[in-house]
Amino acid sequence: MTAPAPSDKSIEQQLLERLREMADAPAAAGLVDDVAHLGGLVLTHDTIAEGVHYRPEDPPESVGWKLVAVNLSDLAAKGAEPTGALLSLAIGDAPDKMLPGEWEERFLAGVAVACESYDLPLLGGDTIALPEGAPRVLGMTAIGKCADAPKRDGGQEGDVLLLVGTLGDAMAGLALLAEDEKASGTLVEAYRRPVPLLAAGRTLALHVHAMMDVSDGLLLDAARMAQVSGLAVEIDLAALPLSDAYLAARGDNREARLFAATGGDDYALLAAIHPEKLTKVTSLLPSKSMKAVVGRLVSGTGISLRDGDAPVELPERLGHEHRPQ
Amino acid sequence: MTAPAPSDKSIEQQLLERLREMADAPAAAGLVDDVAHLGGLVLTHDTIAEGVHYRPEDPPESVGWKLVAVNLSDLAAKGAEPTGALLSLAIGDAPDKMLPGEWEERFLAGVAVACESYDLPLLGGDTIALPEGAPRVLGMTAIGKCADAPKRDGGQEGDVLLLVGTLGDAMAGLALLAEDEKASGTLVEAYRRPVPLLAAGRTLALHVHAMMDVSDGLLLDAARMAQVSGLAVEIDLAALPLSDAYLAARGDNREARLFAATGGDDYALLAAIHPEKLTKVTSLLPSKSMKAVVGRLVSGTGISLRDGDAPVELPERLGHEHRPQ
C-alpha cells in the first residue's frame, strides 16, 4: 500500500525544477513553500486562468473572491497577518450579454468584498488588455506579516497530521456544476468562494512543526509535506473531516472518501504537530472549526493509505493539479 | 498649443479609476505611482502578454529579460535597490518548431540572466497551465528597498524636467520588426531588451521632487506627472535625447522627434528638479548617461509643446498604451 512520493514529470514539474535552481536565495527557501520570506514579511503569488481555475460561467464576483481567498490561504498556512496585495488584471472580451468592462467591474467588486472581509489593503498592481478571444488571466501578490512562520518541510517523525477545514466540498460542487450549470448551494459555494483559514492558521503557527494549505488534494499535498520533511506519511480515510453537505451529496462510502482525499481546491490547513501538543492545540482553535487527525508522519518515504484498520490501495492520481478543461 | 491632460476614458481607464477607489490605504498612495509602499519596501507588479507587450516571434530569452527589466524600471524610478521578485509563469502551447516547454525554458533563461545582471533574487511565484491556443501572460512582482522614494506627484512649479536615457529607440525597433521580422541591431535590441536605469534612479532619488519611468511615451507620461502634481507641463521637442542609431534610422526632423516623444517602451527616467540643483544632479549621474532637460513644470493644467522657439500643435495621441496588435 506504499507508493513512492509523486514524481510525475509534467512540463510544469520540469519548469518548477528549473525555477528551484534559479531561486537559490535563502529567502526563497528552495521554493519548498508557497511563500517567500523577506524581512518579517511573507509574500505569495497565485495566478488563476479562465477555463483552468474557474469556469467561464462562474459569476465574476466569485472569481474575484476566489483570487483573493487562494492567496490568503497561502498566508494562513504561515500564520501570517495580511498586510497588502497587488492585483494583476488582464482584461478580456465581454462575455455574452455583458457590456465591455462589465465582467471586470464585477470581478473587482468581488475582490473588494474579499479584501474588506479579511482586512487586506489593495496596494496596487497592473491592468493590461488581452488579444481578442484570449482567456482571462488574473494574478495577485499577497503580503503578510509574521514573526516565525512554520515551513512545509519541518515535519518530524511521529507527528500527527491535523487537518482544519473540510475536504471534497469544492470538487463535489464543481461536479454539480458540470451536470447543471445552474446548480447552487453549499458545495457550489465552496468551489466558488473558498474561505482562507487565517485565524486558525495564526493559532496553529505557534505550535506546529510544519504547515501548508491543502489546495491540490490531501493525498498529494500530504505526500509533498512528507517528502520535503524526509519522511513517509500515513493517511486514514476514515478520519477525514467531511461536511454534512458533502455526505448528503456523495454518501459516506470509500469512493466518497477517496474523492474527498484527492479532489483539491479545499483550502484547508494541514499541520504536523507533536502528539503531546495535540489536545492543547485543538482546544485553542475556534470551536466551530471542523478538524480531525487524518494521519501521521513516520520514517521512510512515500505515502500509505488506510480506511480505519483496512489498508487501501493508492488511487492512480493523488490529487488534482489544475489543468485546462 | 495647450490641451487638457489626457482623459481618454477607455475601459482600462475606467477600471483603473475603480481600482483607485478600492486602493484607499495610505500605502497605496492612491495608485498615483507604479509602486506600493510597505514599511521601507516598495513593491511593483507588471504583467506582459503575447501579442500585446511583445511579439510572438520575439526570442523567448528576450521576453524573460523584458519582464524583469520593465519591473526593475519601476523600482529605478523610486531610487530603490532590488531585493527580490516573484514570477508568474503561464505555460502556453509550444510555438512551431519548439518542443513542449522549450519556450518556457528559454524564457526562464532570459529571466535568470536579467536577475543575475541586476542582482535580483528570484524568491518564488506560481506556474500555471493555460488552455490550448491562449496567448501567454507573464507577470512579475518586484520588491525594492529605499529610504525615501520620490513620488510621481511631487513636482513643483518651476521645476525643470530632466530625462535620463533616450527616447524612441524601442518603437523605432518595433517598426523595423514590423517591416522585416528578421531585423536586428541597436533599435531592435532596445525594444526587446530595455535597460532599467537603476544606478541613475538611485542617484536622482536623493535630489528630485518627483520621478517616474517613461514607459508609455514622454508626452503622455509627462502630462500624467504634471496632472497629479497639480501643474501644467511644457515640453521642447528640440531637446529630446536621441541616440545615434535613432537619428540614423529616423532622421532629425520634427516628425522623428514627435515619434520619439510619443512612442513608449523607452524605460527612461523623468525627474522634476529644482533648477538650481540641476548642475549638481547631472554631475552626479554616470558620465555616459544620455540626459537632457526636456521641459519644465509651470502653473496651470495640461501640456504644451514646442520645437525650440516654435510652438507645435499637440499630436492626436500623446503616447502609446499597450494594446493587442
UniProtKB/TrEMBL annotation, chains A, B:
<keyword id="KW-0067">ATP-binding</keyword>
<dbReference type="GO" id="GO:0009228">
    <property type="term" value="P:thiamine biosynthetic process"/>
</dbReference>
<feature type="binding site">
    <location>
        <position position="74"/>
    </location>
    <ligand>
        <name>Mg(2+) 3</name>
    </ligand>
</feature>
<dbReference type="InterPro" id="IPR010918">
    <property type="entry name" value="PurM-like_C_dom"/>
</dbReference>
<dbReference type="InterPro" id="IPR016188">
    <property type="entry name" value="PurM-like_N"/>
</dbReference>
<comment type="pathway">
    <text>Cofactor biosynthesis; thiamine diphosphate biosynthesis; thiamine diphosphate from thiamine phosphate: step 1/1.</text>
</comment>
<dbReference type="InterPro" id="IPR006283">
    <property type="entry name" value="ThiL-like"/>
</dbReference>
<feature type="binding site">
    <location>
        <position position="46"/>
    </location>
    <ligand>
        <name>Mg(2+) 2</name>
    </ligand>
</feature>
<keyword id="KW-0479">Metal-binding</keyword>
<feature type="binding site">
    <location>
        <position position="46"/>
    </location>
    <ligand>
        <name>Mg(2+) 1</name>
    </ligand>
</feature>
<feature type="domain" description="PurM-like C-terminal">
    <location>
        <begin position="156"/>
        <end position="306"/>
    </location>
</feature>
<feature type="binding site">
    <location>
        <position position="44"/>
    </location>
    <ligand>
        <name>Mg(2+) 4</name>
    </ligand>
</feature>
<dbReference type="GO" id="GO:0000287">
    <property type="term" value="F:magnesium ion binding"/>
</dbReference>
<feature type="binding site">
    <location>
        <position position="265"/>
    </location>
    <ligand>
        <name>substrate</name>
    </ligand>
</feature>
<feature type="binding site">
    <location>
        <position position="34"/>
    </location>
    <ligand>
        <name>Mg(2+) 4</name>
    </ligand>
</feature>
<comment type="similarity">
    <text>Belongs to the thiamine-monophosphate kinase family.</text>
</comment>
<feature type="binding site">
    <location>
        <position position="53"/>
    </location>
    <ligand>
        <name>substrate</name>
    </ligand>
</feature>
<keyword id="KW-0547">Nucleotide-binding</keyword>
<dbReference type="GO" id="GO:0009229">
    <property type="term" value="P:thiamine diphosphate biosynthetic process"/>
</dbReference>
<dbReference type="Pfam" id="PF02769">
    <property type="entry name" value="AIRS_C"/>
</dbReference>
<feature type="binding site">
    <location>
        <position position="215"/>
    </location>
    <ligand>
        <name>ATP</name>
    </ligand>
</feature>
<feature type="binding site">
    <location>
        <position position="34"/>
    </location>
    <ligand>
        <name>Mg(2+) 3</name>
    </ligand>
</feature>
<dbReference type="Pfam" id="PF00586">
    <property type="entry name" value="AIRS"/>
</dbReference>
<feature type="binding site">
    <location>
        <begin position="125"/>
        <end position="126"/>
    </location>
    <ligand>
        <name>ATP</name>
    </ligand>
</feature>
<feature type="binding site">
    <location>
        <position position="126"/>
    </location>
    <ligand>
        <name>Mg(2+) 1</name>
    </ligand>
</feature>
<dbReference type="InterPro" id="IPR036921">
    <property type="entry name" value="PurM-like_N_sf"/>
</dbReference>
<feature type="binding site">
    <location>
        <position position="74"/>
    </location>
    <ligand>
        <name>Mg(2+) 2</name>
    </ligand>
</feature>
<keyword id="KW-0460">Magnesium</keyword>
<keyword id="KW-0784">Thiamine biosynthesis</keyword>
<protein>
    <recommendedName>
        <fullName>Thiamine-monophosphate kinase</fullName>
        <ecNumber>2.7.4.16</ecNumber>
    </recommendedName>
</protein>
<keyword id="KW-0808">Transferase</keyword>
<feature type="binding site">
    <location>
        <position position="74"/>
    </location>
    <ligand>
        <name>Mg(2+) 4</name>
    </ligand>
</feature>
<keyword id="KW-0418">Kinase</keyword>
<feature type="domain" description="PurM-like N-terminal">
    <location>
        <begin position="38"/>
        <end position="145"/>
    </location>
</feature>
<dbReference type="GO" id="GO:0005524">
    <property type="term" value="F:ATP binding"/>
</dbReference>
<dbReference type="GO" id="GO:0009030">
    <property type="term" value="F:thiamine-phosphate kinase activity"/>
</dbReference>
<dbReference type="InterPro" id="IPR036676">
    <property type="entry name" value="PurM-like_C_sf"/>
</dbReference>
<comment type="function">
    <text>Catalyzes the ATP-dependent phosphorylation of thiamine-monophosphate (TMP) to form thiamine-pyrophosphate (TPP), the active form of vitamin B1.</text>
</comment>
<feature type="binding site">
    <location>
        <position position="213"/>
    </location>
    <ligand>
        <name>Mg(2+) 3</name>
    </ligand>
</feature>
<feature type="binding site">
    <location>
        <position position="216"/>
    </location>
    <ligand>
        <name>Mg(2+) 5</name>
    </ligand>
</feature>
